[in-house]
Amino acid sequence: MDLSTLRPVINKRWSSAVLLGLLTATTLAGPVPAFADDRTEPPAEPPRVQLVLDVSGSMRATDIDGRSRISVAQQAFGEVVDALPDGTQLGIRVLGATYQGENKQQGCRDTQQIVPVGPVDRTQAKAAVATLRPTGFTPVGLALREAAKDLGAGTTARRIVLITDGEDTCAPPDPCQVARELAAKGTTLVVDTLGLAPDEKVRRQLLCIAAATGGTYTAAQSAEELTDRLKQLVDRARDTYATIPAAVDGTDACQGAPLLSPGVYTDRETFSEHRWYRVPVRPGQELRASVSVALDRPVNPDYGVLLRATAADGRELVRGVDAGSGRTDVISTGLRWSAGDDAERDEDTDATPTAGAPPAGTTVCLVVSNMFSPRAGTAADPGMPVELTVDVVAASSAPDGPDLGRGWVLLLLLTLAGLLAGLVTGLLTRWWVATWRN
């Protein structure tokens, strides 16, 4: 057969090899992602944050690094404004900043928005804060209610960051009750609180406000702590969801744990606790789960988060340890596990998954554990905020991990390669010894 006869055959085989290679690469890379259609999507709503600053008379106290509380807060505000992420819409509201009299009724209406929520003019915002002087009462509840109105409605979560050194002196409205009312409305609103005074009554009030809306509480005892935490909270606005995660209560064992469908969930976990959940997974499906624990209070540096998937009988399937994302206020980890065709069936027939869950099949137990230890004086209750993301998708063709037990050909090749390497090494060693002796 001459070359002209062989060329079509060679071209055909070459094309087939290329096509096979492309198909193999696609398979190894996993399922092809689904793309949205060509219709133009509306632009994503930018993060919206309202900073609420207490400017009442107690902010004159000079007990933070030898400086007044208001000067430390002003410095922190200035640094945060300079470091704002692009696209952030920021507003600033103050309370107790203007009325200097003794009329409580009038003083308890003293709250103003000094910077409207929107794209930030950094110079204007810093100047507005720099001119504040501690003056009046502390209407925290009213300020929170007005701050929620300032932020308006929207599809993404909005955040209020409250900085105060004292409890509300004007209730009603009680600030904790205001936070509960805002949460009950179903608005995508989170309130984070920063306390500037080591006072137990203030701490309890700020914890209540934060817990009611899924936010965090932090006691800032230095200018550096206040600045760092404020930056983290403003920056976190970029990581919010289009909908508020569903609240769920994990249990202390797999049996009877809540059965979860794909979605995002929130829970709270105390120090060194284990929280259990269950997820139905059918053969041919892959479970993907991740968890984040917010460090909303001082902890010792020897911390970590562990997420494990186990079978109903307690056998561990896979685990993921803390991922080290670089953030100091959140520790995260994740895992993946595929259900094989021979996966055992769950015998718990009375369990009913939440809406959207797959039919009964293998039930995987997810357990979230933490190895946090509190610093002296740190409260254990309420637990630290936990955010759990669960998804169940078609299993990837990629293996879960090395599996030489099924790869007999690869195992045989490795054995032969080892024997051959040993033989060659032995011969070379004998030759070298014989040459050296001569």
UniProtKB/TrEMBL annotation:
SMART domains tied to this protein: VWA (SM00327)
Biased composition (Acidic residues): 341-350
Transmembrane stretches, start-end: 408-433
Top-level taxon: Bacteria
Signal peptide: 1-36
InterPro entries: CLCR, VWF_A, vWFA_dom_sf
Stretches for region Disordered: 338-360
Methyltransferase is among the record's keywords: no
Domain VWFA span(s) in chain numbering: 48-237
Pfam families xrefs: VWA_3
Record's protein name: VWFA domain-containing protein
